[in-house]
Structure formats: C-alpha cells, structure tokens
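Wed. Picked up where I left off yesterday with Diaminopimelate decarboxylase. The coffee machine is broken again, so keeping this brief.
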Amino acid sequence: MNLTLEKIQQRLMSSDDLKTPLYIADKNDFKRNITDFVAAFRKYYPNYNIGYSFKTNYCKEFINVVKEIGGYAEVVSPKEYQLARNYGFDDSRIIYNGVIPDLGNKIRCANHGGIVNVDNVGELGSLIGIYTSPLAIGVRLNFDIGNGIVSRFGIDVDSKSYQEIIELQRRGLIKVKCVHCHISYARGLSYFKKRAEMMARYAKELRANIVDISGNMFGRMDDSLKAQYGEYIPLYEEYAKTIGEVFAREFPDGEVQLVTENGTPIVSTSMSLLATIIGKKVIRGKTMLVVDCKRDDVGFVCHTKNPPCNVLSNDSDYVEHATIYGCTCIENDIIHRDYSGPTNIGDKILISNVGAYGCNVANDFITHKPKCICIDDI
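Structure written out below (tokens, as returned):
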C-alpha cells in the first residue's frame, strides 16, 4: 500500500488527471503474498497446493499469477468455471465447488482431471445418473469443530447421506478422490488444527488422495485494521505450521495432497480504491464527509470495520472523528465511522485493503462501478 500511496502522490504532483473512483491493483504485492503463502505451507508439508478463490477478486493480472505458479482456480458457478477456462486453466487445474446445479460442466471438469466437490447426495446422484463409468469425485463434508455455527454447506458426517457415499464407493459407482469442507467464523489456529485432524480422518476413511480444507484465514493487513478484530491475527507461517504438522504426522510419506482455498489472505492488500472527497458538512456537531464512491465499491470490509484511509491533501484543514459516507442516497452508505485527519473538498483519498470482495461485489446501483488500473500504469 505504501508504494501505491507514493506513486499516486507523485502522479498528483505532476498531473491531477486520475479520474475517480478508481481501483488500483498491485500485481507485485499479490505475487509476494501468494508465493510467501505457498512457501510457508510447503515448508511443513511439501505435497501442498493453493486454490485461488475466484469469487474474491476477478482481476486478470492476479489470476495470471495463480496460473504462473501452478495453482488451482477455485470456482463456484458456471460463470466462474467459464471464466477460469477463458483465462487458460485446464480442467485439471480447476476446483469446482458450490451449490449451483451445473451437471454438464461438472462432469466435464471431473472427467478431465478436475476436482468437483459435491455439496449433497442429490447432486451426486444426478452426476452418477448421467455418467456411465465410476466417477472420480470430491465430497464436501459438514462436521462440528466447536465454533457454535451450524453451517448449511456439505454432507453431515453423522447422517445417512454420509453412509450412502461409503456404500456408493464400495459398489464401485464412485471414487472419492477428494474430501472438502467449507467452514466459516473459525479463523483461529485451534480451529484449523481441529479441522486438519478431522479432514485427515475422513480422507483415510474414504480413501481420498486429496484433502481440500478450504480457507477462511486471516491475511496481511494494515495495523489499524488488525487492531479492530479483537482477536489474534495469525501469520502465514503459523497457519502453515498448525496445518502442515498435522498432515506430516498423518501422511508421513506425503501420499495425500493438501489443498487450501484462499482469496482474502493473499489479495486483500493488493488492491486499493482511489476516490475524491466531494462533500463536507457538520450536523449537530457531527462531521460528515462524502466521497465519489459507495460502500459496495469498498466491499465487505467496511460493513463492520473501518478500512485504512489516507487523504492526499496539501491543506492544513483537519477533522476529528468524522464519518465518511458514500455518494448514494442510502443512509447506511458508510465507508469509515471514525476518521481523523486532513480533509478538504477535492482531496483524493486512498482506501486500502479492498482487494477481497471489493471490485467483485461492486455494482451499477446509482453510480457505475469503478474502473481498474495497475499500479505500474500510474
């Protein structure tokens, strides 16, 4: 982010022609994040690979890096599956998850060596029904790791459906090549240790040769953002050690491939949003700023947190405890709830850590979604 800020400052000093709002992608930051992440995991368990979560950010420059390092494209819809193929991923490098019926593409992907993780036995039955040979398939499992959340995703390991999977494999109708899970609200290391242990257990039970423990990890972030979480933020190395040591113990010969699916931990810091302050007023003692983007452009991070904001100002005018609003006519179009710093109408503001679920969830409601450029093009 500091490099992005410096380059924008230099550009504004020479020419104020950056039209906002504007996403700024940093390919080098993304490459550094993903290579460090993969290296950390392979240190503890060499038979590891990463699946990049397409839904987190579709930026082509980032996806090309994933392809360069040999990672998987993790997709969850017909749209994303086609996008991965358009970007040059072979089916053998695609992980197809999700609950959307797409039998033709899922069979194609599985038949060409991809990983298709079915979410329920009804979907599995449909795939078996139109495929004549034993289908090599993945299964998404649902089990309790003690986080107090009953997820809607996957097949309950304590249910009749799970036993049906065992029976289908015994009869030679399927070959379970992968076990998968999708667990939210459990980013701590103790949860990942339990997740890894239970997934290793089910991999052995179903004789799977790939274990995809999914994601939902913390990543690198600005210190001001980190302080808002109220819990410990593990490093890449700590996640890798916690998970990798379990797999090294359970599969000492490395016969099972470990996969994680990650978007947020590697892309959050790799994109910023440049906007312009277009309004400033005080109502009953409360300072309110308005920028020319909206909350949906910033993404999920500003729903519950205050994203890092740097105002590029040459003036000494200063505000304290201001709320930064988006430019729509929606009352809760809030981007930052407690900004203190320099502020003038016309100033540029750089909103950081918006790489995860920012540009992908941006829309054309009231205003058009921002364009995107690479930092190298500034």
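Quick read: DSSP finds 13 helices and 17 strands in the chain.
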